[in-house]
Amino acid sequence: MLRNLFRSGHAYGDIQSILTQVMPKGACLDLPAGTGVNWQGIEAAGFRPWAADLFPKTSAPPGSPRVKVDFTADLPFADESFAAILCSEGIEHHPAQSGLIAEFARLIQPGGHLLITTPNVLNLRARFSHMLTGHSPANRGPLCEVSQIWPSSDGKGKFIGHAHLIDYFELRFILVTNGFRIRAVDTARYSRSSLVLAPLLWLPAWIATAMFLRKRLKKETKLRAELLQGVMSPPLALGKKMIVLAERLPHAGASQYAGKTAASSFSQAAS
């Protein structure tokens, strides 16, 4: 907990350490690649990075694979092209997240992995804010056309900001129904506000969540336990970011879901 309390807000170091443990190795698509901050980590983890971004010029070193991609459209890659895909701080900008995950499932080889990082809207601070204001502080401003339409990096256009924040319940559902199994959930840094609120809110939140799941999933004992363990784990109850590692199963479809817990740490998950 101390490690995650005093770290910087992004997950650069975590991405390298997670991907280092992931097998099999091969090509790794970094989408959106942004300014290329994850490139060295992907390479150091034993993968061949491919940078893809709407503005790809600064996403990778000169001469390295980089592609201009609008990820709101079909992705311009062949089926099962990648051993892994990294979607770091991107899914919260996408208006059709189920379609994006379906495209990732198409591109990832069976047994390959998808690593997603995104703002965490289930920490205690966000839950408390939503109770009082109807709005999560992770959005960095109210959801409206003034705060969530951002100028592009080249100043020639605009794109959507954090207008499509996604919580663990929704992300897990989309992953499972597209043939993925969640291997682990972690965070890059704990929210100090959530730590302050934890003595007051953690137990009531745990009880309320457990009662809700028991009422709605009466016969699904194993699934209830997995969901409760996931959403009330320290990374999701206290973390600023949600980092999810998911494995593409050999045959796409929710029926392949094995029901493994998603609250383990990455050091235990990617064996």
Give structural notes.
The longest helix is centred in the C-terminal third of the chain and has 25 residues, at about 190-215. Helices cover about 35% and strands about 20% of the residues. The two termini are about 20 Å apart. It is α/β, with parallel strands linked by helices. The chain contains 10 helices and 9 strands. A hairpin with a 6-residue loop joins strand 6 (about 150) and strand 7. The protein has one domain (about 1-270): Vaccinia Virus protein VP39 (Rossmann fold, 3-Layer(aba) Sandwich), CATH 3.40.50. The strands form 2 sheets. It has a 7-stranded mixed β-sheet with strand order 3-2-1-4-5-9-8, with helices on both faces. Strands 6-7 form a two-stranded antiparallel ribbon. Helix 5 packs across helix 7 (about 190-215) and helix 7 runs antiparallel to helix 8 (about 220-230).
